[in-house]
Amino acid sequence: MRRVRHVVIGVLALFGIVVVGTVGYVLLGFGVLDATYQTVTTITTVGFREVEPLDGAGQVFTIILILAGVGTALYTLTVGLELIVEGHLGAVMERRRMDKRIDGLRNHVILCGWGRVGRAIAKELGDARREIVIVDNDPERVATVDRLPYVLGDATSDDVLRQAGIEHAGALVAALSTDAANLFITLSGRALRPDLFIVARAREDSSIEKLARAGADRVVNPQEIGGARMAAFLLHPHVTEFLDVVMRDRSIELRLEEVEVPAGSPFVGQSLRQAKVRDRTGALVLALRHVDGTMLTNPDPDTELVVGQIIIAIGTDDQLRVLVAAVSSAPGGPGAPGAPMHDHGDGASVSP
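^ that's the sequence the OP posted. Answer follows.
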């Protein structure tokens, strides 16, 4: 901003000298056009001949005009060039810093599209402290990105996705405004990273199956979800509000969590009853998602846990942390089924 102010001051000063010079030459007997011409050629030192011979007073005035005008013109030109060069270099350095920051990210989310849907997604991910890289091809929209790394470019391009760090990303979100663009992003993302988790936005119901075939793990129609949520508020307002609070309000104790059962977990081969999840962690198992994608809600206590199964549970932060540790612990270690338990004060018994 200071450089811009200096340029403005220089231009105004140069304009003022042109006006003063023109008036001075008019008083010396020149016409207005001749006076303006004589002033400009004098200030710019182009070396054209004088319009008319100057007497002593005219020569003194010209000397003063040269000293003031040439100095002001050089100053204005210098600060103008500095502004251009610094602006270009600043943009280059900022891009390099951004690229270096992106290169250092791991398991981040690449969010393609910085519209209303994209901004809402970024807010939720930011509240959950997930690292995000924004990709959008609109300079005006990108200019509104605050404190997040971004890539200005076409998200359907493989090079742009690579620049966003897709090799080390944990997920890709295709949230552009057209289904065709989201389809291309999904295809590109799946080709570059076959193991990447991809969520795609769909505007038309007919696009959902296409996006799934293209490689999207989840396809979301915001309009459909919005309508269903509004209907839910009419049919079950208190239940819907409770679910909203649990999923979105991080100031309350209770929240939902998903935990994958890894290979080597002490829970593998155990039933929910044998694992004593509720007794040991305090968390309540609401559902199990099987490896084939089917969801078992309110599972029977005798349901056996297997590798790759997803446990969906509800509890406090502490209870869910204990659950994650127990599921991931080595057989016979702290938190494993069969290990000694103690009461940690809230009624839930956990391993020491």
